[in-house]
UniProtKB/TrEMBL annotation:
Pfam families: SH3_1, SH3_9
Record has Iron as a keyword: no
Species name: Menidia menidia
Compartments, record wording: Cytoplasm
Spans annotated as Disordered: 312-352
Highest taxon of the lineage: Eukaryota
Major location (coarse): cytoplasm
Record keywords, A-Z: Cytoplasm, Repeat, SH3 domain, TPR repeat
Family listed: Belongs to the NCF2/NOXA1 family.
Official protein name in the record: (Atlantic silverside) hypothetical protein
Transmembrane parts of this sequence: none
Compositional bias of kind Basic and acidic residues: 320-330
Gene Ontology molecular functions: superoxide-generating NADPH oxidase activator activity
Amino acid sequence: MSFVDTLRQWDEAVTCADGGDYTRALSIFLSIQEPNSKICFDIGCLHLLNQELDAAEKPLRLGWNLAITPCLKVQVTVKEEVGFTFFQVLQRKYEESLADFQRTLRALRGNQLIDYKALGLRYILYACEVLHNMALAEAQLGDWQKAQENLLKALDYKTEAKFSVIDRALQSILKQKHFKPVEFPSKMLFKPNKHYVAELEKKDYLGKAKVVASVIPQDEFSGFAPLQPQIVDGPASPREPEVLRALEGEPHTVLFEFVPETSDELAVVPGNIVFVLQKGADNWAYVVFNERKGLVPYNYLERLEISLASQRNKGLTEPPSREPPTRPERIQGLTPGENGTGNSKQEEAQPGDQTVVVKVRFTFTFMVSVPRGASYELLVEKIGEKLELPSAAITLSLDPSGQRVIDATTQMEDVWSLVSEGRLTLWCSTREQKEENPQSETHLVALHTYESSNPEDLNFKEGDTITFLSRVNQDWLEGQCNGSTGIFPAAFVEEVPGKEQ
């Protein structure tokens, strides 16, 4: 049995004994396979409480290395006195008790007491009490002179006035009368170290993850996303596929590594599981992977069939050894959007239906997909659905300063003429934000050069001036520099002091 199991059962048994359930406490103690001397002592005490005098002697012998054990064992002898009718048996018991007391006195090594509190027992063993019981055993054996000497010696060891029992015992010895022994309280048990017991409880050192920054307002997601294979050559050996939960789109397996060349393309490696939201006529697929969306060549993917039978009987196939196919040519204006259904047949049946991905800069950045040439009402309705706001509360503009405002009187043909590669960037504000916006823009100066391969990050060099747009969280900001917009670390910039009026 391990130390942890022993400690757990020991603590459980002591708890039962403190509650008065001595029978259950004794059964738990007896189930411990390799009890130490303290546990044996506790077993003997519980036998005494149950009036099982014969059964108490064996565990007390096993706990013999404790100085207090012989004193408790003598209580077995004294309590059995009524049951003995033959003088020889009685004499043998008292001789054994006398030897036990002498051993306890030697264990005291001339000290007046032993405090067992450090060992887990709230009891103090006094040398004068041991000499008192030695005198009783010698008196029972008829050696009154030796009994008197031990009591006189006990008077020298007496430290407190409460030991008046020694004075009364000395008077009884002078009259050659027997007296009562000093008994150990059997309800006191050795208890395990409280620090060790506290370590038995399980502790959660990781804690619970929480959302620090999210593009979704009031995001309360907690937990950890599952790991995805990131090795270049795919899995080394076949394994059972995981159960996939597709929220939208069709699951596909990535066959070849794809390195993006533009910001709207998504980097993937062999073995990744992506969900195809929409497939265009130019053989490019709009996919989602790890909550990020982008374009991937469709001939780099393979459709993944999900069924209970295939998951139980069929593992993942080995990664292909052939070279990846050539990169397909992109057709301008046919970039898939967020509203794609993933049904390639339906899209191929309507090749003339061109859509535009509109990137909207708000307190966070998001995208909507609208038909090319759509009216202002349709555009603002789409954005209002994303923000869960009425159309009347939304103001759109073509620049971050808000001077080129788009409204119902704007010629939308001029707006759609600004579309480049199927994309258009607009700035959005609400009526509440306009009231809160400061009259002047906040400018930041770059303290260090920041370069990142992530398309959503803003690259700049030391000394560049950055227009502050919004604060993502405590460590990241969003801004505009050199015609580009993105996020960057707040520690890399400092605010430019405003000019005095």
